[in-house]
Amino acid sequence: MKYSRIIAAISTLSIATLSIVSCESNTSLEFKRYYSEGAEVYQTRCQNCHGNDGAGLSALIPALNDSTFLKKNKSSLACAIRYGMKGAITINGKAYEENMPAAELAPMEIAQVITYMNNSFGNQLGIVTMDEVEADLKNCKLIPGSNYLQLIIKPSR
Ligand code: HEC
Predict the structure, then answer these.
(1) The domain spanning residue 55 has which CATH number?
(2) Which of 16, 91, 114, 151 is the most buried (most CB within 10 A)?
(3) How many domains does the chain have?
(4) Residue 4 pLDDT greater than 80, yes or no
(5) 110 lines ligand 1 (CB under 6 A)
(6) Ligand 1, closest atom to CA 151?
(7) Cα gap 64→85, rounded to integer Å
C-alpha cells in the first residue's frame, strides 16, 4: 500500500518534470530559429554600418553591446528599426547623433534581428517575438512631418 503510493507519487513527479523539459526545449528551439534567421537579416541590413562584431564605427555609429540601453529601450527598438532613428543618444557613455535610416522589414524579420542583436556581442537579453514587435509597432511616435521615429530613448547611464 505504502509502496504503491510512493510509486504513484514518483511517476506523477516524473511526468511533471518531463513536460517542463519538453516545454523548455520548444522555447529554445523557437529561440534558435529566431536567432539564426536574425543573423541573416543582420548581415544584409545592419552589418554595413554596425560592423560584423556589432562594434559600430568610431564616433559615427554606436556599438550594439550596451545591454543596459537595449534593455531599457526594449519596446522602442522595433519602431527605431522600422522607421529609423534621429536625435542624440548615449551609448557606452558616448554621444551619437547621426541618423539611422528606416529598414523596410516585416515584423517577423524585425523580431528576428532584435533577438539576434540582443543575444550577440555580449548581450544576453532573450527572445523578442513577432507578437511583441507587432504590439510595439502600434505605438510608434513619429516626428511630425518626417518619417523618423520620435525617439524618447533613455540614456543608458
Ligand atoms: C546607414 C547606417 C545604419 C544602418 C544600415 C543601421 N544602423 Fe542602427 N544606427 C545607426 C546610427 C547612425 C545610429 C545612431 C542614431 C542616433 O544617434 O539617433 C544607430 C543606432 C542604432 C541602435 C541604438 C543605439 C545602440 O547602439 O544600441 C540600435 C539598437 C540599432 N541602431 C540597430 C540597428 C539594426 C538592428 C539595424 C539593421 C536592421 C541597423 N541598426 C542598421 C546607423 C545604422
Answers:
(1) 1.10.760.10
(2) 114
(3) 1
(4) no
(5) no
(6) 18
(7) 14
